[in-house]
Amino acid sequence: MKLFPSDLITINAEKNLADYLAYKGWNHLSEGSFGVLWNHPLHGGEVGVPRGIRSGTGMWDGTISMIAQWENSSGYEVDKTVRRFWMDVSDFRAQSSVVRGNYIAAEAGSSLFSGAWKILRSSATTSRGTKIAIGGKYSSLGDRSIDGAMFAQTEPGSYILPLLVPIDRSIAEASLRKADHIDEGSPEDFFQTISEETEQRRATRTMAQALTAIYQKIIEPAVDPTMRAINETVVAGASREMVVALYDIINEETVSALDVTFSWAPKAGKISGVSSSVEVPKESAVLLERAAKQMKIAREPASALVSGPIFALYHPKGLDSGEATIEAAHRGRIRRITVALRGAEELDNAHRWFRGHETLLVEGAVRSTADGLKIDRPSQLRPLGQSLLF
Fold first, then answer.
1. Of 135, 157, 160, 306, which residue is most buried, by most CB within 10 angstroms?
2. Residue of 59, 77, 89, 91 whose CA lies nearest to 20
């Protein structure tokens, strides 16, 4: 039987609660056949979590209420955070003069639901390889990575549409156990790896990067978009389909602006170089329309432009050369590409980017070797976030 996302939330409620408590600094004090006792070292609070606790029950509500009291929070906020602990959440809010509490004009609401889904789906495809225009050729692997995505109920008192993408917990946890591994066999050299991204996080990170780039490169300058500006957004993960979806939302007569706010599953890896929220004002509709008209499928250049987080960094002691291995989409697949590093400045930058969990933008000829894909002489090497500032 295939389980739907709502079923998975119920099944994982007890584990989510345990993960939440540990993340918030509670200690696993003791356990027995009936449950687990948690203690917080700062405020001294103690909470017992019964075995087999299920969300939506009186036992669940009572436990959540007790935790909220100790944390000076509300039961609503704690409950929501626990349920979404292993989810990336994007809140889409359409500002409109006709929004009344939990209601919105039907046409605007239809565009919001449809547009939010198109933005996520296009991001799942471009997370596996940049595409200036998808043209209906969505990635089946990209679609599979977000097949658990769902819309939640609007927030009370406003029309905020939460788009939830559950993270593959087993992969994320296995990756965390391997994270920050230092090769003890080479004490003279620096070799370190970080946790791998899940497919779901790669899609949501790409969506946030692309929306940030569209705002900074197309909307904020408030001038006709150039191909250089458009290409910067494409490198970040934007596509014609994403730009058209944004246009369709804000071009609705009753919509004055669109806000998108991002919240990340706490234990699915750090995110840097993207805005926490993006606003698309009504006035940007004409800029988005002009950008979309220029976004046409082009031939693939000989020099590849790839982006992704640093998976591993190797720097032999005493040498002014090393290697950074990034996880990036290349020709429709997620590949590990090793980039040569030369000079003290480049190596210092690489160490700083690695510690900061930056997503890198690398340009150069990719060659296939017995040891995998390599870029020997990158013509560009910088954080993707930095490229969006200029």
1. 306
2. 77
Phi, psi of 78 (to 5 degrees): -65, -45
Among 17, 53, 9, 18, residue whose Cα is nearest residue 34: 53
Query: Count H helices, E strands: the chain?
Result: 13, 17
Give the pLDDT of residue 319.
81
Please report, as a single letter, which amino acid is at residue 335.
Answer: R
| Cα–Cα separations (whole angstroms), residue 57 to 6, 60, 152, 258 | 15, 5, 19, 36
Task: Quick: pLDDT tens for 17-39.
Answer: 999 999 999 999 898 889 999 99
Q: How confident is the model at residue 156 (pLDDT cuts 50, 70, 90)?
A: low
Separation of alpha carbons 20 and 86, rounded Å:
10
What whole-number percentage of the chain has pLDDT above 70? Answer: 87
CA within 13 Å, CB half, 354: 23
CATH of the domain spanning 304-387: 2.40.50.140
d(CA 176, CA 310): 15
Q: CA 158, CA 259: separation in Å to the nearest integer?
A: 13
Please compute the mean of the pLDDT values over residues 148-176 and round it to a whole number.
Answer: 81
Between CA 159 and CA 102 the distance in angstroms is 5
What mean pLDDT value characterizes the chain? Answer: 86
Query: pTM to 2 decimals?
Result: 0.77
| DSSP code for 34 | S
Strand partners, 280: 258
Token pair in block for residue 231: 């290409």
* Cα 307–chain centre separation: 14
Q: Do the beta carbons of residue 147 and residue 8 sit within 8 Å?
A: no
**Does the pLDDT of residue 185 top 50, yes or no?**
no
